[in-house]
Amino acid sequence: MKKVVALFAGLSLLTLSFASDATIKLEKVSKNQLNVALDATEDVYGLQFDVVCNSKISKEEVKHAFAENDLRSNMSVYSRLREDGSVRVIMFDMTGKSIVTANNVENVITMDLNSENKDSKCTCENVVLAGKNGGSFENVKPIYEDNQQTHSTSPLQTKVKGNYPNPFNPTTTIEFDLAEDGLVSIVIYDIQGRKVSELFNGELSKGFSHQYNWDASSVASGKYFAVISAPNFTDTINMTLLK
Over the Cα atoms of the chain, what is R_g? Predict the structure, then answer.
């Protein structure tokens, strides 16, 4: 573990930074569950950060968000509970592939808080991101959001959380919050703009974390786009299928 940390830190110090932005968000989705999501303007090849809470995190239940059949299940993910009760997380792919693609919000870690304190707060500190060829990100902004459904029956705004995993093979999950009741559609297009699949088209009630799965077994590897339309809202996410 010490060798991994030293290698990652040394890489970030020896390479030049480039004008890229990233946001790492801690989102408390329930009393005891914390999600960590990353959004960056360039592909991310390595990630290190510390999660510090005013309640202790259970070491046994820190897990990455990738299923065993995900292409990135071979990605190296290390987490270590420190004496001060914080958790250090390091993620990278030994094959040199990116772990998060540009301009696509992705959940990277899920944590269970070992606490009955529903008002516990967390911060993300000591964030290091490695880009292509070891370049470091110039601007990294940590954000904390408390989106517990016990505090609110519906989100304040409609927001697409992205799809995960991404890249994927052959299934991926699209997740979004819906602020208004109404007609919602989720349509998949290929890179030529041709309609590939319609995952949903109908009425939905407002609420947190609507999820729809796309099984891309019948289509070829490549770039695809999901267009999510809702009342007073439209957003597009980029998806990569690798078979």
Answer: 18
Which residue in this structure is represented by tokens 């390479």? Answer: 15
Tally the residues of the chain: 243
Q: Write out pLDDT tens, residues 11-29.
A: 443 344 455 678 888 877 7
- Supply the mean pLDDT for the chain: 77
Query: Residue 14, SS3?
Result: helix
Backbone angles phi, psi at 219, to 5 degrees: -120, 165
Closest CA to 188 of 205, 206, 170: 170
Domains of the chain: 2-146 (2.60.40.680), 159-241 (2.60.40.2550)
**pTM score, two decimals?**
0.53
Q: Transcribe 117-173 into DSSP letters.
A: -TT--EEEEEEEEE-GGGPEEEEEEEEEEE--TTT-SS-SS-EEEEEESSSBSSEEE
CA dist 17 to 20, 79, 93, 130, 198, Å? 8, 26, 20, 9, 41
Both ends of the chain: CA-CA distance in Å? 31
- 159-164 β-sheet, strand order: 159-164, 171-178, 207-215
Other beta carbons less than 10 A from residue 32's beta carbon:
19
Picking from 40, 36, 27, the residue whose alpha carbon sits closest to that of residue 63 is: 36
d(CA 209, CA 239): 19
Residue 161 near residue 37 (C-beta atoms within 8 A)? yes
Taking the C-alpha atoms of residue 209 and residue 161, their distance in angstroms, rounded to an integer, is 8
Side chain identity, residue 139: N
